[in-house]
Amino acid sequence: MNKEWAGLGRPHIANGVGIPTGEAMCGVVGAPGRLEYTIIGDTVNLTARLESTTKEAGVPLLVSNTTAELLGVDYDTQPLGDVKVKGKTISTSVFTVRPKKVTQELRAAVLAGN
Fold first, then answer.
1. Judging by DSSP bridges, how do beta strands 61-64 and 17-19 pair with one another?
2. Closest to 21 measured CA to CA, from 61, 73, 70
3. pLDDT tens digit sequence for 53-104
4. Per-residue confidence (pLDDT) for residue 102, from 0 to 100
5. What is the DSSP string of 43-58?
């Protein structure tokens, strides 16, 4: 899409994803007439912090230490350092992630700028 948009003079679009592993609570909260679905918990907060750190680190994906441990042998994780999470006294280790086996489809998508 970005390749096509560049030809039209449109801006480049990028996104970042943060994936921690942990517990969260979700449900409908609020007063009658103002109900909304929400998700709360430390894991949700860490998700937001990891996502914002992708911009600073210049990488599209960051995972927490727990997630990195659960990924298994198909992925190469590299430590990026510790992130101070607002509201927490201890920092959280974060990792970049890449698949160990690059498929032809993935290689073609990367080369095409997708």
1. parallel
2. 70
3. 999 889 999 999 999 999 887 788 999 999 887 777 888 999 999 877 666 7
4. 67
5. HHHHHHHHHHHHHHHT
Beta bridge partner(s), residue 26 = 39
Task: Report, as an integer, the average pLDDT of 35-54.
Answer: 92
Task: Decide the pairing of beta strands 92-99 and 61-64.
Answer: antiparallel
For the chain, percent of residues with pLDDT exceeding 90:
50
Q: How far apart are CA 59 and CA 13, in angstroms?
A: 14
Question: Where do the domains of the chain lie?
Answer: 2-111
How many of the other CB atoms lie within 10 Å of CB of 106? 12
Count of residues in the chain: 114
CA 56 – CA 93 distance, rounded (Å): 15
May I ask the CATH class of domain 2-111?
alpha beta
Q: How far is CA 20 from its chain centroid?
A: 8
Please tell me what DSSP assigns to residue 33: T
What's the predicted TM-score (pTM) here?
A: 0.74
**Separation of alpha carbons 80 and 66, rounded Å:** 14
